[in-house]
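Hi R.,

As promised on Friday, here is the backbone we talked about, encoded as structure tokens. Could you run it through your design pipeline when you get a chance and send me back a sequence?
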């Protein structure tokens, strides 16, 4: 992933920001960095650089959503007959076939050399070696990791906007990254990235106040549930928890509407019970936090998302100065669509190599 991040930086930033700041759309920069790093981790090179793969992964989330909403207005028994006629459904099938031919030429199950990738792991450990099934898994997993609606890219944008609006945090985060990187021999590892405690806290606070949805833990009830107050929830009902309001509830957090970038770092240091310390980490699920879900169905990919975010953010903090364009002091308002929250995708930032 580190190698791919270096290549992505060269392609996206290159020499253009060495002498003077260059103005870039923050969304395009962050999304491209995370997308390329994740694709390298999932399928390896050279597949991750292939235009067919890039197009299929980027188009998959939106095409699935369009198919879903187009079919929802029809009765269930009609949907299997209508789906093949939808242009997005046909594109999904075409992209799947092209990616399958790319990953498994002539139906041969070939590893991407000896790279440590998710694809190679599945080839070595999976009982289901069907190329069609493995292709579906790779597209789905990668698209889920990099789509703008997933927590990793979304949270990374929120962190960048908060850093630009509160630059006083940058020197402490930069010093921490320099210290940790020097101690690890100038090479980022899983262990060294997990030592970025202040960055971890800043990420978690950004996620708390800029959650991806006002509701969380949405579930369809399969059997009758009777609550302690006598309320009966019947099969077929849909339930959800108010994750947005909970994240700003004073019963869970002190001074909940205030942004405190090192809130969770300090809470972790103050924890009397060592067993409570992981709750204050970015991947932790403390009371009041439903960003990762809850219980046995909580997000299993949050550790991966955390590592990718830290790798990208620590690299940008160490190697670049960045800020909003001249005159802008506050971060842009998030875009709200029903219960979903997305960062401003048109916001520009100034980036200059240090």
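Update: got your reply. Pasting your designed sequence below so it's all in one thread:
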């Amino acid at each position: 992933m580190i190698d791919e991040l270096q290549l992505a930086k060269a392609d996206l930033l290159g020499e253009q920001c060495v002498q003077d700041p260059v103005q870039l759309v923050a969304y395009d920069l962050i999304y491209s960095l995370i997308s390329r790093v994740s694709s390298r981790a999932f399928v390896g090179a050279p597949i991750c650089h292939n235009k067919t793969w890039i197009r299929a992964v980027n188009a998959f989330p939106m095409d699935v959503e369009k198919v879903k909403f187009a079919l929802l207005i029809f009765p269930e028994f009609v949907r299997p007959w209508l789906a093949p006629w939808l242009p997005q459904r046909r594109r999904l099938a075409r992209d799947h076939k092209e990616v399958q031919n790319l990953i498994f030429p002539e139906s041969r199950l070939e590893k991407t050399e000896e790279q440590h990738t998710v694809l190679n792991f599945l080839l070595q450990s999976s009982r289901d070696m069907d190329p069609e099934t493995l292709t579906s898994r790779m597209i789905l997993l990668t698209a889920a990791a990099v789509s703008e609606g997933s927590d990793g890219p979304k949270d990374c944008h929120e962190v960048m906007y908060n850093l630009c609006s509160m630059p006083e945090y940058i020197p402490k985060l930069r010093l921490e990254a320099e210290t940790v990187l020097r101690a690890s021999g100038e090479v980022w590892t899983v262990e060294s990235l997990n030592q970025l405690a202040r960055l971890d806290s800043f990420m978690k606070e950004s996620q708390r106040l800029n959650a991806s949805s006002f509701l969380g833990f949405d579930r369809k009830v399969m059997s009758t549930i009777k609550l302690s107050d006598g309320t009966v929830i019947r099969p077929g009902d849909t339930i959800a928890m108010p994750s947005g309001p909970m994240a700003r509830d004073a019963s869970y957090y002190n001074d909940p509407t205030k942004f405190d970038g090192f809130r969770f770092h300090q809470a972790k240091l103050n924890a009397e019970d060592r067993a409570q310390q992981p709750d204050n980490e970015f991947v932790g699920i403390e009371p009041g936090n439903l960003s990762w879900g809850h219980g046995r169905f909580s997000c299993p990919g949050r550790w991966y998302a955390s590592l990718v975010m830290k790798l990208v953010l620590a690299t940008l903090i160490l190697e670049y100065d960045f800020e909003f364009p001249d005159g802008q002091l506050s971060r842009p308002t998030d875009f709200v669509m029903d219960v979903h929250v997305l960062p401003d995708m048109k916001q520009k930032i100034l980036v200059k190599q240090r």
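One thing I noticed while checking it: The radius of gyration is 22 Å.

Thanks again,
M.
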